């Protein structure tokens, strides 16, 4: 009553892979992937190579556009309300100027004497 397949002595469980062989296989695959990536990178760099004449032409175009834009700005600049050369600067940008103006409206009357003392140099 015994099967002939049981007599061969083979088991139905799969054999465990050799860890060293598996590691060697993974390393070889990684090496192949690195080589392929390196080759692809070299091809991409060669494909994107820029002709020096084209780069010079692009630089001239950019410079011409900037000059045109600066000329337009000079021609269409709106007049300034306050001359920046004569005004007292108490801000670092326009947003800060608005904030300082709001603080001055809210607390200006309370800080007037302190500001005057600081300007005279008699503040304690």
UniProtKB/TrEMBL annotation:
Residues 7-26, 52-66 have a biased composition (Low complexity). May be part of a spliceosome complex. GO terms for biological process: mRNA splicing, via spliceosome. It comes from the Eukaryota. It comes from Fonticula alba (Slime mold). Transmembrane segments: none annotated. Residues 29-51, 70-81 have a biased composition (Basic and acidic residues). Belongs to the SYF2 family. This is Pre-mRNA-splicing factor SYF2. Keywords: mRNA processing, mRNA splicing, Nucleus, Spliceosome. Residues 1-86 are annotated as: Disordered. Pfam families: SYF2 (PF08231). Involved in pre-mRNA splicing. Its main location: nucleus. GO terms for cellular component: catalytic step 2 spliceosome; post-mRNA release spliceosomal complex; Prp19 complex. It is found in: Nucleus.
